[in-house]
Specification:
mainly beta, 4 domains, six-stranded antiparallel β-sheet, about 15% helix
Length: about 400
């Protein structure tokens, strides 16, 4: 049930300037709630009200005061110099005007938006669904894409295309996760290794880079301490140390001490446990219970040998390179690449607004003599071939080399 009902629109806001004919000989107070209006061409009046009191000081001739439309909605959005009347006289004030436009008025919530919010609410009373968490993270200005992975048993993974990188933990991201994650759920980051007493399994999973966390899989009665090694962002082996406090509970997350404050781990290499307890070794940025990872970027290179017609369009090679670069830059996290798609955008300009993103034909290619696509340790050379990506990879354009053969 949505107790608040349909969300109302916002008020248009701006400033009203109140003026005198001559410099004021005494302070003139414009009260909060002073009402003014604009008259539209059809005679309709749109009313506005000051949000606060203002004063034209002695010797002054004007003052600007914050104001808003009386009614919510887009009708209050109005151009400059349209609000020119006051509903009641203020001694000494001879004119009012909005020297800048009033903006920000929005309509009330649509039926579709209300319906979507209703379904979100009934699916997760008190806490967010995965869809709501994804929406909240997409509202963070530094994030261009969100992928939520469900690992089961109360664990999720968050892959965020975050422009802020991994040098610092983003408070905005952590806040969005903490506020919207479902009760009983942990954003665990990447599971990099498991420890069962003295037995260790190091997984092949790696990440773009993150901090190292330990999560007990059982109650840890006495303090426990051990070390592990990891591969850093420069491909160097580093050592991290961790101390698990006494009386740590299953599901707690404890941050390991990295080799340096700036060091980030791509992959766990070895673990030397004490042999007393069981743990998950996790990699991710964030705070305990609210971890996130960035996608690993996989450069894809394209080499094409082409033969041109006698009258190719101007700048054809540059247009082909632009098309392929834009195409490869549009891939989403975890999306595979088809050889046939590269072939398509070798000869048609990539246009994300067009049907299937196929824009106009590029004119002047007589024959594609050879085409090879490489990336992620793979090669695609013919129709049916693919560049397969892991769930946390995202393709980006590498070297695009278009060779014109005589």
């Amino acid at each position: 049930m949505l107790i608040s009902g349909r969300l109302p629109g916002d008020y248009a806001t701006g400033h009203l300037v109140f003026s005198t004919a001559y410099p004021a000989t005494e302070a003139i107070v414009i009260p909060s709630g002073t009402k003014c209006y604009a008259i539209l061409q059809d005679g309709t009046k749109i009313y506005y009200v000051t949000n606060e009191a203002g004063t034209i000081a002695i010797g002054g001739s004007s003052t600007a005061i914050a104001a808003r439309a009386v009614e919510r909605g887009v009708a209050g959005n109005i151009a400059a110099y349209k609000i020119l009347q006051m509903t009641s006289r203020i001694t000494g004030v001879v004119a009012v005007e909005n020297q800048l436009e009033f903006t920000g008025g929005t309509p009330e919530e649509t039926d579709d938006a209300l319906r979507e919010r209703y379904f979100d609410a009934i699916q997760a009373p008190g806490k967010a669904t995965a869809r709501m968490l994804e929406r909240a993270l997409n509202d963070v200005t530094t994030i261009s894409e969100v992928r939520v992975l469900n690992y089961g048993s109360g664990d999720i993974g968050l892959l965020l295309d975050h422009s802020g990188g991994i040098e610092e933990v983003s408070d905005d991201i952590v806040s969005a996760i903490e506020t919207n994650i479902a009760a009983g759920t942990q954003a665990r980051g990447c599971l990099a290794a498991t420890i069962d007493a003295s037995s260790v399994v190091v997984l092949n999973d790696d990440v773009y880079g993150g901090l190292v966390w330990l999560r007990p899989r059982c109650f840890v009665a006495a303090e426990d301490a051990f070390s592990l090694t990891y591969l850093d962002m420069d491909g160097q082996t580093q050592t991290a140390n961790v101390t698990i406090p006494a009386a740590s509970h299953r599901g707690d997350m404890i941050l390991a001490e990295m080799a340096t404050e700036a060091s980030r781990a791509k992959k766990i290499l070895t673990v030397t446990p004490s042999g007393n307890n069981s743990y998950d070794v996790l990699l991710g940025m964030g705070e305990a219970g609210y971890l996130y990872n960035l996608p690993e970027l996989v450069e894809v290179g394209v080499v094409a040998h082409i033969h041109l017609t006698d009258t190719p369009e101007t700048g054809l090679v540059d247009l082909i390179e632009e098309s392929l670069t834009a195409f490869l830059g549009a891939f989403r996290i975890g999306e595979n690449l088809e050889f046939s798609d590269v072939q398509r955008f070798l000869q048609n300009y990539f246009d994300p607004t067009a049907d299937e993103s196929i824009g106009r034909s590029l004119k002047g290619i007589d024959e594609v003599i050879s085409l090879s696509v490489t990336g992620g340790g793979q090669a695609a050379m013919k129709n049916g071939d693919k560049i397969l990506v892991e769930e946390d990879w995202r393709i980006e354009a590498g070297l695009i080399n278009i060779v014109v053969d005589d």
